[in-house]
Specification:
- By secondary structure, this protein is of the alpha/beta class.
- The chain has two domains: 237 residues, Rossmann fold (3-Layer(aba) Sandwich), CATH 3.40.50.300; 262 residues, Nucleotidyltransferase, domain 5 (2-Layer Sandwich), CATH 3.30.420.240.
- The chain contains 22 helices and 26 strands.
- Strands 3, 4, 5, 6, 7, 8, 9, 10, 14 and 15 form a ten-stranded mixed sheet that branches.
- It starts with a helix and ends with a helix.
- 41% of the residues are buried.
C-alpha cells in the first residue's frame, strides 16, 4: 500500500464524525430486514416519533454519557440498538460490547438482527468481513471493522465481560441478567468498568422492568432525568402521558377500546394515535440530572399495537397473577410490586372457607400431595387442581413418627394409594407427590426410589429466580439418587399472589374446606418477602414471621411443585376438566366396570388410573 493511501485511511479514521445524528443516519441509510422487522424496507423514524430523541441521545453530539430505556416490549427498543451499531460502524468507530442475558440470546441477536442489517443496509456492506469466510475478524460473537469491533457476550460469562477495553457498552434486557457473573460480581458493573479508559464513552441500558425494588432498569431509571413522552389530545390539545387507567371500552367489547383525555374527558380513537405521537415531546421530571438520560414508554404508545388488542390481552392476562405480572412488566413497562402482592390478610383468606359436597369438589380434576418432613412427623397437604390452576385444599394431615424408621413411611404409602370420592361419582387417585428431602434425606430417597413410576418425587427447595420445576430429569433423579431442585421462591410468590384473588371460578383462586383450623392459615401465611441489599445490589428473600411455623406453606409449595411436574410431563388441566366435567353437572358413574371405562374414555386413564 502506498504512503498516500495509508495517509488517506488514517485521515478517515482520525477525522471527527460527520454532523449527523443517529436518527438522521437511520432515516438516510437503514434498511429493515424481513428477519427482524414486521415492515420490511426503508427505516422511518416518523413511524414511531418517540424514538428520535432516544437515538440522538446515544450520538456523539449528545451531552449524555448514559442512556436508560425502560420500555415496553414491541416498542422498537432492539431496532434502536441496531441503528446505533450501524452508526458506529460507518461514522464513529470504536470497540463495542453488547451484553445479552444468555449466550443463546447473544447468538440470536448476531444472527437474526446484526447480520441482516449488515447485509441489507447498503452503506454497511463490506465494512465487516463475510461471516461465511474463514476470516476470524467476523465470528458470531465477535466482528471487526475499520477502527473498531463488536463483541457480543452473555451476562453470566465473566470472561466475556472483562476481556477487553471498550468505548460503547450496550446492555440489553438487564433485568434478565443473573445477580452475579460467575463469582466476579454484578455483570452490569463489570461491563461498565471496561469503559473507564475512554473519555467519550457511551453506555446504554435497556429492558422491560421486573420486580419493584429489585429491578436493575428501574433503579437506573430512578437515577436518570426520568423523561416520559407527553402527547396532546386531538380535541383540546391538553398534554398528557398515556396511562392504562384511561383506556376505556364497552363491557365485553375490548376491541372497541378508546382513550379518555384526562383534560376534556372526550374519547380518542386508536387511529388518532399517530397524530398525537407526531406532535408529542419528551419531558424530564429531573432536568437537573445532566449526564444520564432516562426514557420510559409503555405499550399504549406503540404504533404496532392497537389499543383494542391490548385491552383483549389485559382481559386474558388478568385471570392469573402470573400472566398479569407479565402484562404489567412487558406492556405497561412498570415494575411489579411483589410486596403488595405477597401481603395477604389472614382473616380474608379464612373467610373463604366453604362446605364441600364431596371429598373432592366438582371443579378439581387432578390431585397432588406435598409432604414436609420434620424430626418427629410428616405433614402433608392434598390439593385438587382445576382449570387455570384453581385449587381446592382437600385435606391437611399430620402423620406422627420418626422419619428415620419405617412405620411413618408405610402410613404415607397407604395414604398415597387411596382413591378419593369426586363430586361426579368418580374416584380420583393422587396423581403426583413431592416430598421434602432436606431432612432425613436418605430415608426420603429410599422411599421415592421405588415409587418414581407413581410420580412420587424427592425434592429440595432452592431460593432465587428459578422455575418451580425443572423440565428435564437426569438419570440420578429417576433412580432416586438425587433430588429434584425446585424453585421455592417462585412457588411462594405464585401461592401468595393467588391467595389475593377474591373471585371463585377464576384462574388461581384458592378454596379451603369449612373445617380447616386457624393454625393452618397462620402457617400458610407464615413468611414475608423482604428486599435487602448486598454490595448495593437488591436481593429478595422470604423470611419467617417471628414465632410462626411454616409447615403448611411448605406442604402447599410441594403440592404445587408436584402439579408443575405433571404439567411438564404433558398434563393439561383444561383437557382434564373438559373430559371429566363435560356434562357440566355431577352425575353417577355406571357400576359396571366396562361401562365406566367407556364413559371415562381412553384419554383419561393415564391420570385417573394406575
Amino acid at each position: 500500500m502506498r504512503v498516500e493511501e495509508i495517509q488517506i485511511l488514517a485521515a478517515d479514521v482520525l477525522a471527527p464524525p460527520p454532523d449527523l445524528t443517529v436518527s438522521a443516519w437511520a432515516d438516510q441509510n437503514r434498511r429493515l430486514s424481513s428477519e427482524s422487522a414486521a415492515e420490511k424496507g426503508e427505516w422511518r423514524t416518523d413511524r414511531a416519533p418517540y424514538q428520535r430523541a432516544v437515538m440522538d441521545a446515544m450520538g456523539p453530539a449528545s451531552p449524555y454519557e448514559t442512556v436508560v430505556m425502560m420500555w415496553a416490549a414491541q416498542s422498537g427498543k432492539s431496532s434502536l440498538l441496531e441503528n446505533f451499531l450501524g452508526y458506529i460502524i460507518e461514522l464513529d468507530p470504536g470497540p463495542v460490547l453488547l451484553v445479552e442475558p444468555r449466550e443463546v440470546d447473544a447468538e440470536a441477536f448476531s444472527k437474526d438482527r446484526l447480520a441482516p442489517m449488515l447485509r441489507d443496509t447498503p452503506c454497511l456492506r463490506g465494512k465487516v468481513a463475510d461471516a461465511r469466510s474463514r476470516d476470524s475478524n467476523n465470528t458470531i460473537l465477535h466482528k471487526k471493522f475499520l477502527g473498531g469491533s463488536i463483541t457480543l457476550a452473555a451476562a453470566n460469562s465473566p470472561a466475556g465481560l472483562a476481556m477487553r477495553s471498550i468505548r460503547y457498552c450496550l446492555l440489553d434486557e438487564v433485568d434478565r441478567y443473573p445477580a452475579s457473573a460467575g463469582s466476579e460480581g454484578d455483570p452490569v458493573n463489570l461491563a461498565i468498568t471496561r469503559t473507564a479508559n475512554f473519555w467519550n464513552r457511551k453506555i446504554v441500558l435497556c429492558s422491560t422492568p421486573t420486580t419493584k425494588g429489585a429491578s436493575r432498569i428501574e433503579q437506573a431509571w430512578l437515577n436518570s432525568n426520568q423523561q416520559s413522552y407527553w402527547v396532546p389530545c386531538p380535541h383540546c390539545a391538553g398534554p398528557q402521558v398515556l396511562r392504562w387507567e384511561n383506556l376505556i371500552w364497552p363491557k365485553d367489547e375490548p376491541e372497541r377500546a378508546e382513550y379518555r383525555c384526562e383534560h376534556c374527558s372526550r374519547m380518542i380513537a386508536d387511529w388518532q394515535k399517530h397524530g398525537m405521537l407526531r406532535a408529542g415531546e419528551w419531558r424530564a421530571a429531573r432536568p437537573e440530572v445532566a449526564d444520564v438520560a432516562g426514557f420510559w414508554i409503555n405499550g399504549l404508545y406503540s404504533p404496532w399495537r392497537k389499543w383494542g388488542a391490548l385491552a383483549k390481552k389485559f382481559l386474558a392476562d388478568k385471570r392469573s397473577v402470573e400472566t398479569l405480572r407479565e402484562f404489567v412488566n412487558t406492556v405497561l413497562a412498570e415494575p411489579w410490586d411483589d410486596a403488595a402482592e405477597t401481603t395477604v390478610d389472614q382473616a380474608t383468606v379464612m373467610a373463604r372457607r366453604e362446605h364441600y359436597r364431596a371429598a373432592v369438589p366438582f371443579g378439581a380434576v387432578v390431585l397432588t400431595a406435598g409432604v414436609d418432613v420434620q424430626k418427629d412427623r410428616l405433614e402433608l397437604e392434598l390439593v385438587g387442581w382445576g382449570r387455570g390452576e384453581e385449587s381446592w385444599s382437600v385435606e391437611y394431615r399430620v402423620l406422627p413418627g420418626d422419619p428415620s424408621g419405617a412405620l411413618v413411611w408405610q402410613e404415607l404409602d397407604t395414604y398415597l394409594e387411596r382413591r378419593w370420592p369426586h363430586e361426579t361419582g368418580l374416584s380420583l387417585p393422587v396423581s403426583a407427590c413431592s416430598i421434602d428431602a432436606g431432612y432425613e434425606s436418605q430415608a426420603v430417597y429410599e422411599f421415592c426410589r421405588t415409587r418414581y413410576h407413581r410420580r412420587i418425587f424427592a425434592v429440595k427447595g432452592k431460593g432465587g429466580p428459578l422455575p418451580v420445576w425443572q423440565r428435564k430429569p437426569t438419570a440420578k433423579n429417576i433412580r432416586g439418587e438425587k433430588p429434584w431442585i425446585v424453585g421455592t421462591d417462585t412457588a411462594k410468590e405464585t401461592i401468595y399472589g393467588r391467595l389475593k384473588n377474591p373471585t371463585p371460578g377464576t384462574p388461581g383462586y384458592s378454596h379451603f374446606p369449612a373445617d380447616r383450623e386457624e393454625t393452618y392459615f397462620e402457617q400458610l401465611l407464615g413468611e414475608v418477602l423482604v428486599t435487602t441489599y448486598a454490595k448495593g445490589q437488591p436481593k429478595r428473600d422470604w423470611r419467617p414471621k417471628p414465632g410462626v411455623r411454616q409447615e403448611a406453606l411448605d406442604a402447599r409449595v410441594y403440592a404445587y411443585t408436584a402439579l408443575r411436574a405433571l404439567i411438564s410431563m404433558g398434563l393439561s388441566l383444561d383437557n382434564e376438566a373438559d373430559r371429566i366435567l363435560a356434562a357440566n353437572r355431577p352425575r353417577p358413574v355406571p357400576e359396571d366396570d366396562r361401562d365406566r371405562e367407556r364413559w371415562l374414555g381412553n384419554r383419561g386413564r393415564k391420570w385417573l388410573t394406575r
